[in-house]
Amino acid sequence: MIPDPNTDDDEIVTWWGLVIEGYLATQDRLMGEIADRFGLAPASFDILLRLVRSPDHRMPMTRLATEAALSSGGFTKVADRLVAADLICRVPSPDDRRVTFASLTDHGLDVAKRARTACAEILRRIVLTPLGDDAPALAEAMRTLRTVNG
Fold this sequence. Notes:
Blueprint: H1 9-38, H2 42-52, E1 58-60, H3 61-67, H4 72-84, E2 88-92, E3 100-104, H5 106-131, H6 135-149
Antiparallel strand pairs: 1-3, 2-3
């Protein structure tokens, strides 16, 4: 579908504002429920999700920091908290001494799996139910924007 080139500027800006406001309200609600249930801050939850979906539940720390969009120092603070909570451990690479992996502990794997399940349940309630059949189209639209602009 080709957008109408005569769409009013204010209407276009309003559409985008609604996207941002809808995302922020939904993300705040989702992360609030995850924090209440699991005591996880958004960055910690993101890292656990990335690790639970990774082969052997581990990833090089530098790659994990990049994917989580955290600075080196910011990631170190989050990783230190996750280590202190026995959710991850640091594992030196057997192949390259410059590489250290973040790896889920057994406790971390359990928490990550339970948090992922809770996240899906919350998203079913606060996103899929209100959007119904529009949910897949929204996901595809966001994928397109990520591809085009990322």
